Target: Histidinol-phosphate aminotransferase
Amino acid sequence: MPRSRYKSLVDAFAADIRSGHLPPGTRLPTHRQLATEHGLALVTASRVYAELEAMGLISGETGRGTFVRETALPPGQGISQSVVAAGMIDLNFNYPSLPGQADLLRTALRQLALSGDLEALLRYQPHAGRMHERASVARHLMERGLNVPPEQVLIVSGAQHGLAVVMMTLLKPGDVIAADALTYPGFKTLAETLHLEVLAIPVTDTGPDLSALEKLCRHRPVRAVYSMPTMHNPLGWVMDADQRERLVAIARQHDLMIIEDAAYAFLAGDVPSPLAHRAPERTVYVSGLSKNVATGLRVGFVAAPVQWIAGFERTIMATTWNTPGVMTAIATAWIDDGTVTRLEAQKRADAQARQALAREVLAGLRTISHPSSYFIWLPLADDARADQIAMALMREQVSVSPAEPFAVTPHVPHAIRLALGSVDMDSLRQALVKVKRVVGFYS
Model:
């Protein structure tokens, strides 16, 4: 098919979708029907749909067909709090906070102003952080079941920066990394930026399909696996000890690096030890203080095998040089005086109360969550569409995330994620009532 004719068909579909002639939810012809109708080769018909999907205008759904998307949803929905307008109840992005945290910061700044070390904080710091601050983080990690020396801890500018440092250092463009089919959107963004190939590990309600991971490793040159074993985002699972041991065994058999994301691990209570404890020779543990303390406190940490530390330090130097000294000093002081541990306990209780409220309001809907997590995964009925529901809720002044930002696979499940940690309890109840009503209307 001449390129001009192929492009004309793409442009015609795009114009019909943008004008509303093909409204959101319209089922399009199958690839074979499109080819027959326009006299195209099947591969060319598939290219037409692939280009429209890349433009964000349609979506293909396994077993259901190809549909026009709800294009009025703001771009980035589900990964950016910036899309939330004034007056909107935000169930899209989690930034849990507790009363009195601003007073904690005022006190910390006063104490810092009186310290004899203040002038040192105005100078460049060692790339991985000052050793006494790395020691504070190492003590904090012991509470998570991870015993590492300070020399194997690096302080970074938040967990997202930690992930970037790890992936930039250990992986190169074209490398293959396995990740859960539904996973943290920030990881997806990094993988795309670094030109990595992400292979999806099918997921269940309780953990990744590790048999599928084994099969992937037998057929593809997988270099690493990205995992959230404790308080998975968005599904809320906590992998049991047997699952963790099996994942470690697969990693050793196929020589995989493990990137363990523990950003939400503080919300889980009595859980098995981290992957980094079970396979310290090949696991990088990444976490931070955004969720358990405050999102504006951009302090994170990486614990890693000794052979990778120098490489990580070079990448920190290349990206931020070092974590800002003032924020790191406040953060490690709060670790040392027990403030972080106290805030974690309070936020676990807060998350549990929010989950209890959600169970009450959403009774009758299928939900997937952990009783101590700040999010709920809400699968939708077969005839419901996540983009339409998200748009309908926006008109009700409630912002939620459809599944797309979390999906590694091209075919996105119809589900929405509800973030529970960013609004007060009364607003949360109001929003959840609207969620149940809208989901029920479209089901």
